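Subject: Interface between my chains keeps coming out wrong

I've been trying for a while to get a sensible model of this assembly. When I model each chain on its own everything looks fine, but I need the whole thing in one frame so I can look at the contacts. Pasting all components below, labels as-is. Any help appreciated, I'm running out of ideas.
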Amino acid sequence: MIEKLTWRNLWRNRRRTTITMASVTFAVVLAIVMQSLQAGVFNHLQKSIISFYSGYLQVHRKGYQDEQIIENSFTASDSLMKKIAWSGVKYMVPRLELFALASNGNTTRGCMVVGTDPENEDRLTTLKSKIIQGTYFTATEHTALISEGLAKKLNLSVNDTLVLLGQGYQGTLGAGKYNIRGVVQFGQPKLNEGLVYLPLKTAQNSFNAEDILTSVALGLDDPADLEIIQKNLVANLGDPYEVLNWKQMMPDVENHMKVDTASFYVYAGILYLVIAFGLFGTVLMMIAERKVEFGMLIAIGMKKTKLGGMLIAETLLISISGAVLGMGISFPVVWYLEKKPIRFSGEFAKAYEQFGFEAIFPAILKTEIFISQSVIVLVMALLIGIYPLWHVSRLDPVTAMKK
Amino acid sequence: MNTVIDAHDLVRIYDKKTIPVYALNGVHLHIERGEFTAIKGPSGSGKTTLLNILGGLDKPTAGYVEINGTNITRLKGNELIDFRLHNIGFVFQSYNLIPVLTAKENIEFIMLLQKKPAKERDVRVRELLQQIGVADKANKRPSELSGGQQQRVAVARALATKPQFILADEPTANLDSVSAGHLLDMMAQLNKEENMTFIFSTHDQRVIEKARRVITLEDGKVVNDTAPAKLMHSSHSG
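Reply #2:
Try treating it as a single job with all components included. I did that and got this:
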């Protein structure tokens, strides 16, 4: 009967209950969709960054991150590589990175040379997919991949010869001539105008850096294990090495995500505050309208705790129904935005593509987002529910029944 | 007959700190089982205050009330609410039924608070609906009933728990003369058949005429009591 009474009380003023419920639904839908989009965009950004160059983790010689010179390198011994191949590491991309002069005839330009393992590089950064002319290289070739902008500046194309000259390991002079196997295109202008890829062995030979690496980039089986794997690698590799995750290597991106997350919480907070006031208004009106009835119920023998419980249940029912409805509406919206992300075009898209990122805003379907929003609504309803409980605890039936 | 209510030297002062108003000023009252008593008096004479104190809804500034030997003035919080639930029936001037429950559910509700089993509730509700003559309106909500019918349901609700006595604060005040007459006849019949003790506060001459005992209050004092000599003696001797 109490349940029946609670349910019927809820529908005493249908319009008011419906509007309150709708406002909760609206808040939940907005918060879930906003958060799912944000999480989706972050996820996309993270994947883009990781597959762009850095990988999830990188192993360097300590100090390399601050001063990226060939002297801050390390020897790729078998025992070291075995230590890096920690469980959860999907693939390793050993690299030798250095700066050199690239020339063709009388034209010379500065560039970054990346000696890498072609097969694993493609697995991590999908380098092969960035080829716009020619073909991909193999580990044993004496060839190069050149970025499109640099190729243009040097007036080079596929099958032409590229000359590289730079400082090798321990102050030696490194130089070589390479047949251009392919031209790769990067969205980011800085990279597109100054990057050359060589097979690792070729780069090591050319720059007198036998078995020398500047970094090992890592792909992981499960990105969620990033922190555990990083911690284990730090412990396992010891002092001369540093193990950095992509956030540490690109703190600007991490900061951007933090700021964006904080602004989401501010917006969501304002949204929920507005909804909380709406809900509180409903509770206040409900109490004012039923003051005489509450007095009568206490007079005839209903305990205040029971009456308070009934009122909390009414507030919770409105909020939970609104939240469940909100989740129900959000689910297909988020699912659709995950399958068919919002795709931008024009200047906005160009700005994104400049940084090598696809200009899409995908959502991500995460159970925890749905749960967290429903928990927020539940806590909000419980907090608001304290008021009628407090009101009833102080209610004097004689005063309440005076009209 | 046995004593249901024993009120001793009741004093109720409002606004004690500013200008004290004596709503009750030394009221002694003794009510026996089965009485049909009206408390009359002009507005502000203390009728409602007396009823509230007898019903455990208000506390006297001085004096005390014993119901079946229990000093209810000493009861607090849930103890007092529980006592009211099991011992006192209330009928209010404005009926005060729960608007979202039907007539049947309104009567049943109070028994539910008493945790009476469903079968017992069902039997009692049917019985009461028959007695008050609204069996055909059992599934109607208060808004679908006339004032007289609502007040009958309110009386049935008060009776449902078989309390020690029923307190009715101006039960006919909002009723037309026909409905008021029917209600009074019904209550008189219940008083006779169930030996239920009724105490009314009223201005209504028809109620006063039906009552077998009339207590007159003025300025918070009992100025007249038509109780039989034995009762008069015990109520004034404290």
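Reply #3:
Confirming on my end. The mean pLDDT of chain A is 88.
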